Amino acid sequence: MISWIKCTIQDGTDIRLNMDHVAWVRPYRSDRGGKGSEVIFAAGSLSSIVVKESQEELIERHALQRGLGQV
What we know:
The chain is α+β, with helices and mostly antiparallel strands. The chain contains one helix and five strands.
């Protein structure tokens, strides 16, 4: 089952991420005080995108869409 979640990138644009292709999520803090998460994809060569949401927000959204008890 494909699981898409809505996120916001640093310029304020809404995007949807396919969490089935995410290898890991780590905290991101720029030298200008920006906060958010770096989402790193597993497919092909590693690539990433920075979103405004925290790790906890991303995990919570993903868990809500999957339903309780599903991995």
